[in-house]
Write a structure and sequence with these properties.
Length: 690
C-alpha cells in the first residue's frame, strides 16, 4: 500500500476568488482536488472549470518536453529536444539579437495565466530588466478601472468585499458576479437575507442580473450619463451629505453644476433607463444604507472607460457612503497585497526601457518603422494569438519569418503554433507559489503536490536557466541587483523576501505561519473603511471630484454614425462560459458547452431585420475581419447589441480565427489604458451556404 498525503494549495487563475484547495496524492500521483472547507471564501467549493483541474494536469495534450519548430509558422509541427539544447539555443539567439540590435529588440509578452506572485513574473521581470528588453505594459485588464478610481480616491483602495454582507443596498455595476466572482455570491445572498436590495447595472441581462430583484439595462458606454443623473436627483432632493462633501471632497461644485445642467430626460435617452427608475435608484442609494457599489472591469473596456470608472467612484464620495462599514466602493483588492508585500522596487540606476501597451501587439510586431524592430518575442503565462484585439495583425506579426519566438506554456495554444521554441511549464500543483487575490484579503501558500510532469519546469526556473546561460548579471545594465537578489535565490527565498515587510497589514504573517495555516487574512483592521479610517492618498487628502460629461467613444453608434451605417451592431465579447477561464480550457472537448461551437447572441428584432433564424450559420464582420459562427436569439440583450463570447481558440471557426479578429484595438489614456474591446461595431449576415 503506497503513501497517501494531503497537500494544500491555491488556485492560480486570473480570478478574483483565489480559492484554496486540498490535493490528495497517492504514490506521487494527484488523485483528488477539492476546495478547502475551512477557507473563509472558498468554503469547500471550487468552480466548474477547476473542479476538473486534475484532468488539465494529466491531460494527454500537456506539453512535457522542450520543442523546436520543424514546419512553417502557424502549422504547429515540432520536434522534441533536450533542455540543454533548448536553453543553449534560446540563450544564443537572444544574445546575438542583443549584440546586433540591442536588448530593446527583444519583447516579453506575459499576462496572468498564473497570478501567483513568483510564477507570474518575479524572476522573469528581473530577467528582462537584465536583458534591457523592451517592456510590455500588462494593461489589458484592470488598469483603466484603476486609473478611473485613482482619479477620485488616489490609491484606489476599496472596501473589503466581505463587508458587503453589511450593506443594505448593493449595486453590482458592470460585473457579472455570479459567473466571474462566484465566491462573492454567498456574501451577496447573506446581505439579501438581511434585507439588502441588490441592483445590477449591465447592458445585458446576465446570469447575475437574472438572479437579483432589479436590473437596469443601461445602454453600453452610457454610465457617465447615469451617474450624472443620479447626482442630479440626489442634489435636487437634498440627499447629498453636505458635511461630508465640505470636509472630505474637492471639486464638488463643478460636479454638481455638471449634474444639474444635464436634463433627466436626456439622461434617460442616453442610458435607456426611464427617469422614474433613475429617481428610484438615487433615493435607494442615498437613503438605504450602508450602500455599496461592486465593480470589476466590465465598463472599462471602452475608450472613455476611465471616465466611467471615475464617475462610479464619485458616487460614494458625494453621499458619504464610505462612512458606514459595508458602504463605499468594492473593487479589486490587489492593491492591498501590492501595498503590504515587499515587492522589489526598480533599481535606482535602471535605464528607461522602451514600453509598449500589450493591446497594440499586432501593430508593434508589424510596424516597419520601429527602430529597433522587435526581433524576438518571449511569451509566458499568456495566449496573445487569442486574447489581444486586432487578431489578424497579431497573427501576421507572429507569422513573421524573421521573428524569433519562444513560448513557455502548458498546452499547444494558438500562440504556441507560431513558436520557434516551446518550453514546457509546470501547472499549479507542480510548483511553489504565493497566492494573492483581487476579490478578498487572504494570502495563500501554494505548496507543490506532485513532481513536475515530464520535463516541465516552473517559469521561475526557466528564466533563471536562461539568465545563467546568457551570462546576465542580476541587475539592469550589467549591474548587480540593488537588493541582493541573485539567480541562485530559489522560490522559497523569494517568498520569504516578499513577506519580509514592515507594513502593518503583514504583521504576524510569516513563512512559518503560512506553512502551518496555508492562508492568512492580511492584517487589515476588521470593517476597515478606506477613505475614512485613512485619508484618500490624493494631494490634499480629499476625494477628487470634477465636472463629468457623457461622451460616446469613437467606435459607437453615437460616436461614428457613418461607420454605424455600415456596421450597426455593437458587439460585446464578455467572459461567457462557466467552463472557460479567459482563453483556457476552450480547447478541451470535455469543457465545452453543448453545441460545441461559438454562437452569436442577437436580439430577435435584429435577427428578424436580417431574415436570420437560429438554424443559420452567420458571418459577423467589420473592416478588421470576419467570423462564421452559430446564432442564438436572446432578449437578454438590447436591440442593436450583439454578444460573442471571448475565449474560443482559432480552430473553433472556419476562418481559423476567434472573436478578437473583430475587436477594437484602440488604447485609451495615452497608451496606459486597456483596449476598447467592447466598442466594436459589426454587422451580421447569413453564410452563403446557409
Ligand atoms: N475580446 C475580449 N478579449 C479579452 C477579454 C474580453 O473580455 N474580451 N478579456 C481580457 C482580459 S480581462 C484578460 S485578463 C485577458 C486574459 O488573457 P490571458 O492571461 O492570456 O489568458 P489565460 O487564458 O488566463 O492564460 C493564458 C495562458 O497561461 C497559461 N498558463 C497558466 N499557468 C501557467 C504557468 O504557470 N506557466 C506558464 N508558462 N503558462 C501558464 C495557460 O495555459 C494559458 O494558455 O484577456 C483579455 N482579452
Ligand atoms: N468563469 C469565468 N470567470 C472569470 C473569468 C473567466 O474567463 N471565466 N475571467 C476573469 C477575469 S480575467 C476578469 S478581468 C474578471 C472580469 O469580471 P467582470 O468585470 O465581472 O466581467 P466582464 O464579463 O468582463 O464584464 C462584466 C459585465 O460588464 C458589462 N458591460 C459591458 N459594457 C458595459 C458598460 O458600458 N456599462 C456597464 N454598466 N456594464 C458593461 C458586460 O455586459 C458584462 O456582463 O472575471 C474573472 N473571472
Ligand atoms: S478559477 Fe476562480 S473560482 Fe475557480 S477555483 Fe480558481 S479561484 Fe476559484
Ligand atoms: Mo482580466
Amino acid at each position: 500500500m503506497g503513501e497517501s498525503i494531503l497537500v494544500r494549495g491555491s488556485c492560480h487563475h486570473d480570478c478574483p476568488d483565489t480559492c484554496v484547495w486540498d490535493v490528495t496524492v497517492d504514490d506521487g500521483r494527484a488523485v483528488r482536488l477539492r476546495g478547502n472547507r475551512d477557507h473563509p471564501t472558498t468554503r469547500g467549493e471550487l468552480c466548474p472549470k477547476v473542479n476538473r483541474y486534475l484532468e488539465r494536469v494529466y491531460h494527454p495534450d500537456r506539453l512535457l518536453t522542450p520543442l523546436r519548430r520543424v514546419g512553417p509558422k502557424g502549422e504547429g509541427r515540432f520536434e522534441p529536444i533536450s533542455w540543454d539544447e533548448a536553453i543553449t539555443e534560446a540563450a544564443g539567439r537572444l544574445n546575438a539579437i542583443r549584440a546586433e540590435s540591442g536588448g530593446a529588440a527583444i519583447l516579453p509578452f506575459s499576462f496572468d495565466g498564473t497570478q501567483g506572485v513568483i510564477q507570474k513574473g518575479l524572476v522573469a521581470d528581473r530577467f528582462f530588466d537584465a536583458v534591457g528588453a523592451s517592456d510590455i505594459r500588462r494593461h489589458l485588464c484592470g488598469v483603466t478601472a484603476w486609473l478611473g478610481a485613482a482619479d477620485v480616491t488616489g490609491q484606489p483602495v476599496g472596501l473589503d468585499p466581505e463587508d458587503l454582507a453589511l450593506a443594505r443596498t448593493i449595486i453590482l455595476w458592470g460585473t457579472n458576479t455570479y459567473l466571474t466572482n462566484r465566491h462573492l455570491w454567498p456574501t451577496i445572498e447573506a446581505a439579501r437575507a438581511q434585507g439588502a436590495t441588490v441592483v445590477v447595472i449591465d447592458p445585458v441581462r446576465t446570469i447575475t442580473a437574472s438572479r437579483v430583484d432589479h436590473h437596469l439595462a443601461v445602454r453600453p458606454g452610457s454610465d457617465v450619463a447615469l451617474v450624472l443623473a443620479l447626482i442630479h436627483v440626489m442634489d435636487r432632493d437634498g440627499l447629498l451629505d453636505e458635511t461630508w462633501i465640505a470636509e472630505r471632497t474637492t471639486g464638488a461644485d463643478e460636479l454638481r453644476r455638471a449634474a444639474a445642467v444635464q436634463p433627466l430626460a436626456e439622461a434617460a435617452d442616453s442610458t435607456g433607463i426611464p427617469v422614474e427608475r433613475i429617481e428610484w435608484l438615487a433615493h435607494l442609494y442615498a437613503t438605504n444604507r450602508p450602500a455599496a457599489i461592486r465593480t470589476l472591469v466590465g465598463p472599462e473596456h471602452r475608450q472613455r472607460g476611465r471616465d466611467i470608472m471615475g464617475a462610479i467612484a464619485m458616487l460614494p464620495a458625494v453621499t458619504g457612503a464610505w462612512r458606514d462599514p459595508g458602504g463605499g466602493l468594492a473593487r479589486s483588492t490587489q492593491i492591498y497585497f501590492e501595498t503590504a508585500l515587499n515587492y522589489p522596487v526598480p533599481h535606482p540606476d535602471a535605464p528607461d526601457r522602451r514600453q509598449f501597451n500589450m493591446a497594440r501587439l499586432g501593430q508593434v510586431l508589424t510596424d516597419p518603422g520601429l527602430d529597433p524592430p522587435i526581433r524576438a518575442l518571449v511569451v509566458h503565462n499568456a495566449n496573445p494569438a487569442v486574447i489581444c484585439p486586432d487578431q489578424n495583425r497579431v497573427v501576421a506579426g507572429l507569422a513573421r519569418h524573421d521573428l524569433y519566438t519562444i513560448v513557455v506554456e502548458q498546452f499547444a495554444t494558438d500562440t504556441v503554433a507560431y513558436a520557434d521554441l516551446v518550453l514546457p511549464a509546470t501547472t499549479q500543483i507542480e510548483h511553489l507559489d504565493l497566492g494573492i487575490a483581487w476579490g478578498h484579503l487572504y494570502l495563500s501558500l501554494n505548496q507543490p503536490a506532485i513532481s513536475p510532469r515530464g520535463q516541465a519546469r516552473p517559469n521561475s526556473e526557466i528564466f533563471r536557466a536562461l539568465a545563467r546561460a546568457m551570462g546576465l548579471p542580476a541587475g539592469p545594465a550589467g549591474l548587480p541587483a540593488a537588493d541582493g537578489f541573485t539567480w541562485d535565490d530559489d522560490d522559497e527565498t523569494l517568498i520569504r523576501r516578499l513577506l519580509d515587510s514592515s507594513h502593518p497589514w503583514l504583521t504576524g504573517i510569516t513563512w512559518d505561519r503560512l506553512q502551518k495555516e496555508s492562508w492568512c487574512r492580511l492584517a487589515v483592521p476588521d470593517r476597515y473603511r478606506p477613505g475614512v479610517d485613512t485619508a484618500p492618498a490624493t494631494a490634499d487628502g480629499r476625494f477628487q471630484l470634477r465636472a463629468l460629461r457623457h461622451q460616446p467613444g469613437a467606435e459607437t453608434p453615437d460616436g461614428s454614425p457613418e461607420l454605424a451605417a455600415r456596421y450597426p451592431l455593437v458587439l460585446l465579447t464578455p467572459k461567457h462560459h462557466l467552463r472557460f477561464h479567459n482563453a483556457s480550457y476552450s480547447d478541451f472537448p470535455e469543457h465545452q458547452p453543448s453545441g460545441n461551437a461559438p454562437r452569436l447572441l442577437l436580439h430577435p428584432v435584429d435577427a428578424a431585420a436580417r431574415g436570420l433564424t437560429i438554424a443559420d450559420q452567420v458571418v459577423v464582420f467589420n473592416d478588421r475581419g470576419s467570423l462564421t459562427v452559430g446564432l442564438e436569439l436572446s432578449d437578454d440583450l438590447q436591440p442593436g447589441v450583439a454578444a460573442l463570447p471571448f475565449g474560443w481558440w482559432h480552430r473553433a471557426t472556419p476562418e481559423g480565427r476567434s472573436v478578437n479578429v473583430l475587436t477594437n484595438p484602440a488604447v485609451p489614456d495615452d497608451d496606459l489604458g486597456s483596449a476598447a474591446f467592447h466598442e466594436t461595431l459589426v454587422d451580421v449576415r447569413r453564410t452563403a451556404a446557409g
